[in-house]
Amino acid sequence: MTTPLLEATATIPTGRRRPLARRAALLGLSLLAAFAIVGPLLLADPSAQDLSRFLEAPSASEPLGRDDYGRSVLARLAHATRLSLALSALCVATALLLGTVAGILSAWFGGWIDAVLRAVSEAFVAVPALLVVLLVSALASGGSLWALYLGLALAQWVEYFRVVRARSGLVLGSPAVEAAGLLELGPAHVVRRHLWPDLRPLLGTLAALGMVTSILAMSTLGFVKVGLQPPRAELGLMITESFPFYDVAPWMSLAPIAVLFLLTVCFLALRDSKERS
Amino acid sequence: MTDPRPGDDLVIHHAVVQHGTTTLADVSDIRLEPGRPLTIIGESGSGKSVLAHAVMGTLPPELVARGSMTIGAVPFDLADPTGRRHLWGRSLALLPQEPALALDPTLRVRAQVAEGVAGWRPRHPDASRMADERLARLGLTEVGGSYPHTLSGGMAQRVAYAAATIGGARILVVDEPSKGLDRHSLDRLADLLSAHVREGGLLLTITHDLELARRLGGDVMVMREAAVLESGSAERVLTAPQHAYTRALLAAEPSRWDFPWMRGVAATDAAAEPLVAAESITKSYGAAPLFEDVSLQVRPGERWALTGPSGAGKTTLGNALLRLTSVDSGSVAHSRATAGGRLQKLYQDPGHSFPRRVRLETAMGDVVRRHGVEAGRVGSLLEKVGLPHEILRRRPGQVSGGELQRIAIVRAMLPRPALIFADEATSRLDLATQATTMDILMTEVEDNGCALLLVTHDTALARAVTHHQVRLGSPDDVDIRSEDPVAVS
User: Fold this and answer.
1) What DSSP line would sit under B394-450, residue for residue?
2) Comparing B165-169, B180-184, B396-400, B429-433, which segment has the lowest mean pLDDT?
3) What percent of chain B has pLDDT over 70?
4) What does the alpha-carbon distance between residue B291 and residue B312 come to, in Å, rounded to a whole number?
5) Triad A220, A131, A120: Cα angle to 5°
6) What is the rounded CA–CA span in Å between residue A183 and residue B408?
7) Where exactly are the transmembrane stretches of this chain (chain A) (predicted)?
8) Does the pLDDT of residue B477 top 70, yes or no?
9) Can you give the pLDDT at residue A14?
């Protein structure tokens, strides 16, 4: 019999191969989040100009120096990080909720509900995500936060919808759910005990990736000046604004780039370790 | 190194296989002669498969083998897994268990068989021709161009046999060939194995199927807990066993069962309202009809068996009766007594019938709450099926198949069912476990006055457990028979 063979191979602890990467990613994210939450409370107003201190170099009182209008780069960075994290978390949460509910409905009821939802999702897939955001932004007045939020959420829900629909189809067709039906345990049991435990790891991975996509999309739009408008502190905008001065004040462009880089790397590392565990 | 010649014996002088400090197999002096097959029988975990892999040199790396064997005059060290590699396919071949999983799903059957030809080169016409000849001899002319997933279990088994033996190996090790095969396919395989022996081959078969051991003849060895309990000629061991364990093993065959619930069956009331009434139902998949115009009524307390070869539509008919599958025409009516979760089903693979990532106690807790099961009933049922309550703290994947099936029985009993549909519920278990599991199930069925719908390909099991049989053959040949309850005295 295979039993002893299988048991022998099954008891070898596979373990988490990269606990260090996961811990580092969590630490990095909590530091950035703390900076984003506490920074704006303690630091100066990000739009307070002091033209006499224009392009001031970093010092003990002003660790990242001042920009071309004499605004504190550190204060602007804290506000920009808060904006990036909060807005992308909101977008991901909305897209996740919308996509998951639609995906489960589609797999559960099938028929015309499935057909309609699939058609809508395919229409979204056919248009590049950034174009969706641009279209929504164009409809709203320039640089509105709401337009950006709506655009990013709409561009992302399709991903959750497709994954959840495919996975739920498998789970709902399994003998375990058939048995639950014969035991008349009801839809709440099926969602709580069958669907949710199965979808949770997938959604975690997708959400970590979604955060990266949202943050990068937001700063990309800011960078090409179609997203949020100055004087708002935003990572992409800060990078563009600092470009003319890169030779005299490199700290101005390096600071937002470093934050963007750290955010991306941390979320990606988190996703990797989730996939392995 | 000299290769073994025809006519050589294989002798295992001594073989020990260990995993850590646990000994999985410890045997000595096993002789395999041309023309005299050797069959090792025993329950799951008795170490028989491990022994076969130790002979082949295909043990997983975490298992350690010690000992020696000789083929003819050539000695081999069992601790050295690489020393026998050059024999594989040429003189030593393994027919693995679950051939459907052993075959490469991305390779067509012909190419897969051709790979075993001596001196094989990619896309060489000679190898393909030999593979075709080989397949034709096994009655598989049609399947050369198909992929393994399109084959039935029996066909996949014969393809695996063709692939394993095309290299001309004289020593054939067959590991658990009966898993998931119906009687007819198993008979065909037994014929192939017997032909191999008649042509002067050496055959070592590992199985828990006593019927197969009987058909192959030769010698039989009974293993339990890593050691050989008894060995001798098949006629002697299988008719007049010396060891108590062998006697128990033989008694575990359904045809020899003698359980209290088999006797004194209360006459069921023919006038009672049927729990399930099917009225000329028909079902087909694509153009192929599975069954046509079947009518049958299951009354309270009746025990029905649906039998037939694999692919005959037994499970589909059972599902149709439970209204889990829609029918093409006809109707299935359920009586009021079946409302509220009082139709229950046991699955062939119980691992798939529980939520995979949730602890068993959580899953059971939902059932208890939904059906208002009185406190302590889960505990007392678990005690009756011989399981500790702590087992519920595990997840389904952490419990063995036999134990999980018993937990599935407990779960099915919680809503006090009027009818239980057991879909091949014991076909993946070994004989001894099958007997205990069936005994537990039928004791519960009898205590609760529950009706039973049993799907099985094992006619002996169907005869032992039920009084009414539906035999599915071809679509227009559905034989519905009610036997008088046989009183076993």
Assistant:
1) S-GGGS-HHHHHHHHHHHHHTT--SEEEEESTTTTS-HHHHHHHHHHHHHHHHHHT-
2) B180-184
3) 94
4) 8
5) 135
6) 12
7) 24-44, 85-111, 123-140, 146-164, 202-228, 248-270
8) no
9) 43
Region B131-143 average pLDDT: 84
Q: Inter-chain contact A183–B354, Cβ cutoff 8 Å? A: no
List the strands of the sheet with B303-307, edge to edge.
B343-346, B419-423, B451-455, B303-307, B468-472, B478-482
Least confident of B104-118, B130-144, B467-481: B467-481
pLDDT at B265: 60
Mean pLDDT of the region A172-183? 90
Domains located in chain A, CATH noted: 18-44+66-261 (1.10.3720.10)
Distance from the B259 Cα atom to the nearest Cα atom in chain A, whole angstroms = 28
Residue A168 has pLDDT above 80, yes or no: yes
Spatial contact of A5 and B50, defined as CB atoms under 8 Å apart: yes
Cβ contact, residue pair B352, A175, below 8 Å: yes
**Integer Cα distance of B420 and B442 in angstroms:** 10
Query: For position B155, what pLDDT does the model report?
Result: 82
The interface predicted TM-score of the complex, written ipTM, equals 0.73
Mean pLDDT of B48-54: 85
**pLDDT, greater one: B139 or A264:** A264
Query: For residue B74, what is the DSSP state?
Result: E
Question: Which candidate from A5, A12, A193 shows the least CB-CB separation from B366?
Answer: A193
A222 neighbors B381 (Cβ within 8 angstroms): no
Domains of chain B: 10-251 (3.40.50.300), 260-482 (3.40.50.300)
Q: Is B347 on the interface with A (CB under 8 A)?
A: yes
Q: Which of A89, A106, A77 is nearest to A164 (CA)?
A: A106
Of the candidates A1, A5, A175, which has its C-beta nearest B353's C-beta?
A175
**Tens digit of each residue's pLDDT (9 = 90 or more) over A183-218:** 888 899 999 999 999 999 899 889 988 998 888 888
Which residues of chain B have a CB within 8 Å of the CB of A193?
355, 358, 362-363, 366
CB A78 within 8 A of CB A43: yes
Closest CA to A82 of A124, A135, A21, A35: A35
- Which of residues 144 through 163 in chain B touch A, CB cutoff 8 A? none
Optimal mutation site among B353, B369, B424, B429, interface A, most CBs of chain A within 10 A: B353
* Amino acid at position B428, single letter: R
B19:A182 CB<8 A: no
The helix or strand, by DSSP H or E, that contains position A158, with its residue range, turns out to be helix A145-172
Mutation target to probe the A interface, by most A beta carbons within 10 A, among B56, B345, B403 is B345
CA-to-CA separations, B261 to A34, A241, B383, B438, in angstroms, rounded: 69, 86, 19, 10
Query: For residues B192 and B221, is the Cβ–Cβ distance under 8 A?
Result: no
* CB-CB neighbors (< 8 A) of A12 in chain B: 62
DSSP three-state, residue A206: helix
The one-letter code for the residue type at A161 is F
- Chain B residues in contact with A185 (beta carbon < 8 A): 366-367, 370
Instruction: Say which of A2, A4, A178 has its CB closest to residue B97.
Output: A2
pLDDT of residue A161: 95
B36 contact partners, CB below 8 Å, separation of at least 6: B197, B218, B219
User: What's the length of chain B?
Assistant: 489
Which backbone phi and psi does A95 adopt, to 5 degrees? -60, -40
**Mean pLDDT, all residues of chain B:** 84
Kindly state the DSSP code that residue A193 receives in the 8-state scheme.
I
* Helix (H), strand (E) at residue B234: helix B234-239
> Which of A9, A175, A193 faces B363 most closely, judged by CB atoms?
A193
Q: A–B: how many Cβ contacts below 8 A?
A: 91
The Cα–Cα gap between B133 and A35 comes to 74
